[in-house]
Design brief:
The complex is a heterodimer.
Chain A: H1 16-20, H2 26-37, H3 39-48, E1 54-58, E2 61-64, E3 69-72, H4 75-78, H5 87-96, H6 110-122, E4 127-133, H7 136-151, E5 155-159, H8 176-179, E6 192-193, H9 198-205, E7 210-216, H10 231-241, E8 245-249, E9 273-276, E10 288-293, H11 298-302, H12 315-328, H13 331-354, E11 359-365, E12 368-373, H14 378-388, E13 391-392, E14 395-396, E15 399-405, H15 413-436, H16 461-464, E16 466-469, E17 472-476, E18 482-484
Parallel strand pairs in A: 3-13, 5-6, 5-7, 7-8, 8-9
Antiparallel strand pairs in A: 1-2, 2-3, 4-10, 9-10, 11-12, 12-15, 14-15, 16-17, 17-18
Chain B: H1 21-38, H2 43-59, H3 61-72, H4 77-86, H5 89-94, E1 104-106, E2 111-117, E3 120-125, H6 130-143, E4 147-152, H7 157-173, E5 181-183, H8 189-197, E6 203-206, H9 210-218, E7 223-225, E8 231-235, H10 241-253, E9 263-269, H11 270-283, E10 285-287, H12 290-300, H13 315-322, E11 332-336, E12 354-360, H14 363-376, E13 380-386, H15 390-399, E14 402-407, H16 411-415, E15 448-454, H17 467-470, H18 491-499, H19 514-535
Parallel strand pairs in B: 3-4, 3-6, 4-5, 6-7, 8-9, 8-13, 9-12, 10-11, 11-12, 13-14
Antiparallel strand pairs in B: 1-2, 2-15
Classes of the chains: A alpha/beta, B alpha/beta.
């Protein structure tokens, strides 16, 4: 199946959905996908050996058109936190469709108001109002526009290799790969600083010309490098010292994924703005939300029509979100996340002991996990073998050494055991694959607990702005200055294939 | 488009699930995690957990007894206090020295037994003995390393929730896994049915009405359900009449007859009947005239069906409601009738201090009458006999279709093991007679299976001495279960791992950099100021 042809061709069993859509084979879907939809993406996955066309989906299982079953630990960044087609969310949305539609975004609404109240009650103290977007990118744009309005300043500081979405302003906070493609990079207004580097952060803020610092509580697309203890707290203090707002991007770390409803509360930080998306939709109806402090919410009084979004806060989405939030915030769910985190964490550490030279690090906060491998493309190797073995987990786009491993928050104990068994096998096989391709386990065996900053990753300098030399990792700033990136583990030599 | 987007295992049921069920299912899922962890605990920790939960229950025995009476309107607070103590520290004493955890090695038979808990116990508890039954089922579950979800009768839900909470908190504080004791706050029949049939429920332990118990057996899950009682008590001519009268009145008035082991129909041999009725009168019973009996019958069984508003009311109150004058201090109403037949309402179970009275010509015919009582209801449950004739006592036991007979002692506390050496219980197994899977008083061992390792029986094959290895099969937890999910790069996470025995290097605790040290200090000061603000309000 990894031959790129996708599917078994004539005679394959097709789902009713495929037939309804007029397809006669998986190959036909793949061909037409390239022709009419997205040739780049379609070919990329076929080339990677992940020839997946998701058909049926149920709980934490995905089924390819071929019928192959996969345990989903990608979850689209937590969108499927509660599993696919969670029956409670399905029920809520289905029932709501008997009464609601998207709604009229100009008017007060029962659903929007009820969700806003529920979000405010759930959030860290100080957040008092809610603005809706139709997706995470729009929500980030709302947060950034709000920060500029409140502070009357333009600069937004983000982390190198941050990912906050691909809309107009959000894309400029992220990796140049995506902003330069569309001439949307604006380095003067959107300075990027290395993660876990307080000196660089303070340098960026010292001029008091920064509207806000935007931080994912754990940078997801960068492979979940963990903030060093005290780092986020110190960034918040710097924000206060230099009159910048702190925007917590909780799109991937919110909704109980860290074992608390909002990951930022584990740091004791009351952000000025908090953004949630993905999982708040229950995976059933797109919606995202921005929670604002009273200070930030002024524009909602000054000009309530300041941000107009026809689909933002769609009422069906609000119903899905109310249910998703309620499920996430149950004491039972919190307890289960602690159990799952404990079980999967210790299971992964056991696997690590078998392959200490290859599986070199586990970054974990609750069920937010990044698995580090001793190869620049390590996660791609593992992803391929996991896929073959019935598990879907994705590499980190901005650090393919690291596999994003995101178990669902309602995973059962049996599912955890099965997941770990499949994972152990795949990691071992991926190690053999890498060895066949010339990997020799060149670096001394080591284990990390996630403290390694992302800068330890030997990413190509052109793509990341992070370079390494004999002195360690450094970032070259736009004015040519070299800023060392702190790491707590020795920076390894780049592994060549 | 015809594709059924709601296809799949949930189907259309997704759209019809009653309120409260999703939350209930979440409890079972959490319980399953807890049960997995608990099943690996060692004996010392289990003992500590059980002791803590029992002590917490005992400390609230009085408070919850009073609250149970207030909430349900049933019973006698002082008697409920005694039951709450019996089912907390009392159980601890009864099962002191019992071990449902350790691996047992039998060198003779070459068999090793490894206790394996059921997993998730769904405990249905009644309104009549609410707190005692909650305590009882929780402690049995904890003794056997099971997780338990308590589903109380709606009439007693508030006090039962608090009773479960008190034990849960004490158990977890003593090291039990989080979620090993949970309770349903808003019980309902649809919710109960959903939980009983859920595949995460490993065993249903049902105490309650016939319908609930039958539903438990229909659930498709293993169930220990107990049928209703309807207790015949025979007093023959050889009995110590004064003692028997005292014991029967004490038992029948205990907690106003809400224990399902309470006497229902008194069968007394004609030769001593008059003397015995007098003795009963001296002990606090009031013999109703035929007219009074009819009024009491009409009160208890309007239209032939027992009125549950009479459950657990005291004798004087019932008499008042029936318009019958009785002396103050009357504890039991004696309702005479002729024949034990189904159409006689007074021959049915009465969870209140009204005792049917039937004169029988001989002990032999008394045994037949006792069989008749149990044909109406209560098969497999309890009976009592007051006699000094071993032949009568044995004949009674061999003929009457019950699985426990209290001999020369009150049935309420005798059958439930509080005044006999039967297993002390709030759940009476009615066995095959009573269409139940258990024929004994429910005790901890009913909630645990054993994996048996069996070597070849051939005398030439020897079993190695595995005794030394048995000690390492179970282990105490190394911290809270589950561990709090600290980020893996924090010193707290490293501490957890080290406690668990993993070879983890200490995480450096030095500040981020010299430059940031003052920043940290500032953060610390801000946090302290904030805390002070909160504390000082």
């Amino acid at each position: 199946m990894a031959d790129g042809t996708g599917g078994t061709g004539a005679g394959e069993h097709l789902s009713a959905a495929a037939e309804d859509l007029g397809f006669s084979s998986k190959a036909e879907v793949l061909a037409k996908s390239q022709k009419f939809w997205n040739p780049g993406k379609t070919r990329f996955w076929m080339g990677t050996g992940v020839d997946l066309v998701i058909d049926r989906r149920e709980g934490y299982y995905l089924y390819d058109m071929s019928g192959k079953r996969l345990i989903d630990v990608h979850l689209n960044g937590g969108t499927y936190n509660l599993g696919h087609r969670n029956p409670e969310v399905v029920r809520a949305v289905t029932a709501a469709m008997g009464h609601f539609d998207i709604g009229n975004h100009h008017f007060p609404s029962m659903a929007r108001t009820a969700l806003a109240e529920a979000l405010v009650r759930s959030a860290p103290p100080g957040l008092t109002k809610v603005v809706y977007g139709s997706g995470g990118g729009e929500a980030i744009d709302i947060a950034l526009k709000t920060a500029r309005h409140v502070t009357k300043k333009r600069k937004i500081v983000s982390i190198i290799k941050a990912y906050h979405g691909h809309t107009g302003l959000a894309v400029a906070t992220g990796d140049e790969r995506f902003s330069e493609l569309f001439l949307a990079d604006r380095p003067e207004e959107f300075p990027h600083v290395p993660f876990n580097d307080l000196a660089a952060m303070e340098d960026a803020l010292r001029g008091r010309d920064v509207a806000a610092v935007i931080m994912e509580t754990i940078p997801a697309t960068y492979g979940f490098p963990l903030p060093e203890p005290g780092y986020l707290e110190a960034v918040k203090a710097l924000c206060e010292r230099y009159d910048a707002l702190y925007i917590a991007d909780e799109v991937q770390t919110g909704l109980m994924r860290t074992g608390e409803l909002w990951g930022i509360t584990k740091h004791g930080i009351d952000p000025d703005i908090l953004v949630t998306g993905k999982g708040i939709s229950g995976g059933m109806y797109p919606i995202a939300a921005v929670l604002l402090s009273e200070r930030c919410a002024g524009w909602l009084t000054e000009d309530g029509f300041g941000h107009i979004s026809t689909f933002g806060g769609a009422e069906l989405g609000c119903i899905a979100a109310l249910k998703a939030l309620e499920i996430c915030d149950r004491p039972e769910t919190r307890s289960m996340v602690h159990y799952i985190a404990d079980a999967v964490g210790s299971g992964l550490r056991d696997i690590q002991q078998t392959y200490p030279d290859w599986f070199v690090g586990i970054r974990q906060n609750g069920v937010v996990m990044g698995l580090e491998f001793d190869h620049p493309q390590g996660a791609t190797y593992v992803m391929r073998r996991l896929y073959e073995g019935g598990v879907w987990a994705i590499f980190s786009t901005l650090d393919p050494r690291v596999l994003q491993y995101k178990p669902g928050i309602l995973l059962s104990a049996d599912q955890c055991e099965e997941l770990l068994m499949r994972t152990a096998t795949a990691i071992g096989r991926a190690r053999d694959d890498a060895a066949r391709d010339g990997w020799r386990g060149g670096s001394p065996a080591r284990r990390t607990t996630g403290t390694a900053t992302a800068a330890a990753a030997p990413v190509p300098p052109a793509a990341s702005g992070v370079s390494t030399d004999a002195d360690g990792a450094y970032v070259t700033t736009r004015n040519g200055r070299r800023v060392p990136v702190r790491t707590t583990v020795p920076v390894r030599k780049a592994v060549t294939r | 488009m015809t594709s059924g987007l709601l296809d799949g295992p949930f189907g259309d049921a997704v759209l019809t699930e009653p309120a409260g069920v999703p939350r209930g299912r979440a409890m079972l899922e959490r319980a399953e995690w807890a049960a997995r962890a608990f099943a690996r605990y060692d004996l010392a920790t289990v003992d500590r957990v059980v002791r803590a939960a029992a002590a917490a229950g005992a400390a609230h025995a009085d408070e919850f007894a009073r609250r149970a009476v207030e909430e349900t309107g049933f019973g006698v607070a002082e008697h409920k206090r005694l039951k709450n103590l019996a089912c907390s520290t009392g159980l601890l004493e009864a099962y002191a020295g019992h071990d449902y955890v350790s691996v047992r090695v039998d060198h003779e038979s070459k068999i090793v037994e490894i206790p394996r808990p059921a997993g998730v116990v769904l405990a249905l508890t009644p309104s009549t003995n609410p707190v005692a039954t909650v305590y009882f089922k929780i402690l049995l579950s904890l003794m056997t390393r099971n997780a338990v979800v308590v589903c109380p009768h709606p009439l007693a839900r508030s006090v039962c929730a608090d009773a479960a909470r008190v034990m849960a908190e004490a158990a977890v504080a003593a090291g039990a896994p989080d979620g090993c004791v949970q309770w349903v706050g808003e019980p309902s029949v649809p919710l109960l049915n959903a939980l009983m049939t859920d595949e995460r429920t490993d065993v249903v332990v049902a105490t309650g009405g016939v319908q609930v118990v039958r539903a438990a057996y229909r659930s498709g899950n293993p169930a220990i359900g107990v049928g209703p009682g309807n207790v015949p008590v025979l007093v023959d001519a050889t009995a110590d009449l004064a003692a028997a009268a005292r014991r029967i009145v004490d038992s029948k008035s205990f907690d106003n007859s809400v224990l399902c082991t309470n006497e229902s129909v008194l069968l007394v041999e004609d030769a001593v009947a008059d003397a015995f009725v007098k003795a009963l009168g001296r002990a606090g019973a009031h013999l109703l005239t035929d007219d009074e009996r009819d009024r009491v019958r009409d009160l208890l069984f309007p239209g032939g069906v027992f009125d549950t508003s009479c459950v657990g009311r005291d004798a004087v109150t019932l008499a008042g409601r029936a318009g019958v004058r009785v002396p103050a201090g009357t504890r039991v109403l004696l309702a005479p009738f002729d024949l034990v037949v189904p159409e006689e309402p007074l021959a049915h179970e009465k969870l209140c201090p009204v005792l049917g009275l039937v004169r029988v010509p001989t002990a032999r015919s008394g045994i037949d009458a006792a069989r008749a009582v149990l044909r109406i209801s209560g098969a497999g449950h309890s009976a009592a006999v007051h006699s000094t004739d071993p032949a009568t006592i044995l004949a009674f036991g061999a003929a009457v279709r019950v699985l426990r007979v209290s001999v020369n002692t009150g049935a309420s506390l005798g059958g439930s093991g509080l005044e006999t050496n039967l297993a002390p219980t709030m759940t009476i197994g009615t066995g095959f007679f009573g269409r139940s899977s258990v024929g004994e008083n429910l005790e901890p061992r009913h909630l645990v299976n054993h994996t048996r390792l069996a070597w070849n029986a051939d005398p030439a094959v020897t079993m190695p001495d595995v005794t030394a290895a048995t000690g390492s099969v179970w282990a105490p937890p190394t911290g809270p279960v589950p561990a709090y999910p600290h980020a893996s790069n924090t010193s707290e996470a490293a501490d957890v791992l080290r406690a668990a025995g993993a070879g983890v290097p200490a995480v450096p605790r030095e500040p981020l950099s010299a430059e940031s040290a003052d920043l940290r200090e500032e953060v610390r000061r801000m946090v302290v100021a904030e805390l002070r603000r909160i504390v000082e309000g």
